[in-house]
Design brief:
Layout lengths: L5 E5 L6 H11 L6 E5 L10 H11 L5 E3 L3 H16 L10 H19 L3 H14 L3 E6 L2 E6 L14 H5 L3 H4 L9 E4 L14 E3 L4 E3 L18 E4 L5 E3 L3
Parallel strand pairs: 1-2, 2-3, 5-6, 6-8
Antiparallel strand pairs: 1-9, 4-5, 7-8, 9-10
Helix pairs in contact: 3-4, 3-5
Length: about 240
């Protein structure tokens, strides 16, 4: 069991560098006293993914920062591994992993990476990082068990037995929180709370046992769901930190 002054978690960033930096600066993370968990989806949809990539790569492995893998990291990984293994043949077919990534927000990421003039190096370095990112993690503080993953889990199974598709893609608990009867606190990103009818701030459901952290980071005021934010929460105190819109 660990002792921290703050147990912090940051939801989906999706290539919104200024929003991310604004909330991270508000938090004032102290690696000697705090632990911070990032729930994945660092890239795609947002217009400034490269500074986010560089920040994550620079900070990966530093004390008390935990970076999880999201489905957008998985799509990126699958896309470029397929490209490398196929030598480009059929890489742009409609059913390819690359096509799937591009139509799910990867197009803007690819263009921004290309503009740097360091495309091959950035892609190679990011692929190496993604390969290291875990799909979930457990933290125990003050005898309370916390589970962190990007998208979803089966609360009745041990973490080691969770299905990768569940952890990265499904939305079961976000849409049906009553399915969580366990004592552990499950913390998720992936599903924007606005899409579930909530306002753009983290949501505690099931008597606080389920925490939803995706507050629509890439959404702007023209979106039918309204403007989004990037959010961070201290799970020990309930304090919320959010980016400007």
């Amino acid at each position: 069991m660990d002792k921290y002054e703050r147990l912090l978690v940051i939801g989906d960033i999706h290539g919104k560098w200024e929003r991310f930096k604004s909330v991270y600066d508000k938090v004032g993370f102290n690696p000697e006293k705090d632990l911070i968990v990032f729930l994945g989806d660092y890239l795609d949809r947002g217009d400034t993914p490269v500074p986010v990539m560089e920040w994550v790569m620079e900070h990966y492995g530093q004390k008390n920062l935990v970076f999880l893998r999201g489905n957008h990291e998985q799509m990126f990984y699958d896309a470029f591994l397929e490209v490398q293994s196929s030598d480009g043949h059929n890489a742009f077919s409609l059913n390819s992993s690359l096509a799937k990534w591009l139509v799910n927000g990867g197009q803007i990421t690819y263009e921004e990476i290309r503009k740097t003039g360091r495309k091959d190096t950035l892609i190679s370095n990011w692929l190496r990082l993604v390969a290291k990112l875990p799909l979930c993690t457990e933290v125990v503080v003050n005898d309370q068990v916390y589970w962190f993953m990007h998208a979803n889990c089966n609360p009745d199974l041990p973490l080691a037995e969770q299905d990768d598709v569940d952890l990265l893609w499904r939305r079961t608990l976000a849409e049906r929180p009553e399915l969580h009867h366990g004592e552990q606190i499950v913390v998720l990103g992936h599903t924007p709370v606005q899409a579930l009818g909530y306002e753009a701030k983290p949501q505690w459901l099931q008597n606080g046992r389920l925490v939803l952290m995706d507050t629509g980071s890439y959404l702007d005021s023209s979106n039918p769901l309204g403007a989004g934010r990037i959010s961070c929460v201290d799970l020990l105190s309930g304090e919320i930190y959010q980016s400007a819109v």
